[in-house]
Design a protein that fits this description.
Blueprint: E1 4-8, H1 30-46, E2 50-53, E3 70-73, E4 76-79, H2 91-101, E5 105-108, E6 120-123, E7 126-131, H3 137-147, E8 153-158, E9 169-171, E10 177-179, E11 193-195, E12 204-206, E13 211-215, H4 219-227, E14 231-235, H5 238-241, E15 252-255
Parallel strand pairs: 1-2, 4-5, 7-8, 10-11, 13-14
Antiparallel strand pairs: 1-15, 3-4, 6-7, 9-10, 12-13
């Protein structure tokens, strides 16, 4: 069976102080967020994913959004350097897990480059990278340098209407990109694009070839995916959505690291 691991990190007690860029700040129930996080992790485990906890970062309100710290391609990790300077301390513990526990080769984005993992969508060997508020041109250049020699085809797409590329689009198991069209800068950047009826419906985590984890706040999109023959697994992540979080940014999925 293929190796499937997911890096996760518990929410900080300071979660409610997390950054918001495109939303108006609303109160966050930190206790409820912890319960929602446990449910999310439970879904990953129930579908055959081994969860690997990164050391908590209690001083980093956004640390639970662990996906932003790193981009993986095969067994190579490119540690991000967030366009939000306050988030940069989040990466050290993630790098330690990847290098020391999982045996990944590690590269780092160097200044003045910036790159958030939430700006990177992989579809097969194609690596879409969002050029926007958190990822700059130098960060994109360094991503190319790290991954193109490994066979990646890097495609740059604009991001201006949401925080990260994966706030606007993700991909189904067959590689079809899904997005909420009013928030997608360039639908034509993707060879196969499916419009979904809700913003949260644009965010899926592929659990296996048939199953997608998604937010409970997108029931119409879940119906659409079911009509396509997929099995949607909804989870309530309302407290993370208040901080522009979605199902993808709560984990880093690693498949077949050493193949």
């Amino acid at each position: 069976m293929p190796s499937r691991k997911a890096l996760v990190r518990r929410p900080s007690p300071r979660l409610a102080e997390g950054l918001v860029t495109h939303l108006e700040r609303t109160p966050v129930d930190v206790e409820l967020a912890h319960a929602q996080w446990e449910s999310y992790v439970g879904v990953l485990r129930a579908h055959g994913w081994e969860t690997v906890e990164v050391e908590p970062a209690d001083g980093c309100p956004d640390g639970v959004f662990v996906e932003d710290s790193v981009v993986m391609f095969r067994n190579v990790a490119l540690m991000g350097r967030s366009g939000a300077a306050s988030r940069r301390p989040e990466t050290a513990a993630v790098e330690s897990v990847l290098a020391e526990r999982l045996g990944c080769s590690v590269n780092r984005v160097r200044g003045p480059g910036t790159l958030d993992g939430g700006d990177v969508l992989k579809v097969g060997s194609t690596v879409y990278v969002g050029r926007g508020g958190r990822t700059n041109a130098e960060g994109v250049r360094q991503l190319r340098a790290a991954f193109e020699p490994l066979g990646a085809q890097v495609v740059v797409v604009p991001v201006s209407r949401v925080l990260h590329l994966k706030s606007a689009v993700t991909a189904l198991p067959d590689g079809t990109v899904v997005g909420y069209e009013p928030l997608v800068d360039s639908v034509t950047a993707f060879p196969r694009f499916l419009s979904v009826p809700e913003e949260a419906g644009a965010h899926v985590v592929v659990l296996d070839g048939n199953t997608v984890l998604m937010a409970a706040s997108a029931p119409k999109s879940a119906e659409l995916f079911a009509d396509l023959g997929l099995v949607p697994v909804p989870v309530d992540i309302s407290e993370f959505e208040k901080l522009e979080g979605c199902v993808t940014c709560l984990s880093v999925r690693l498949r077949d690291l050493h193949t």
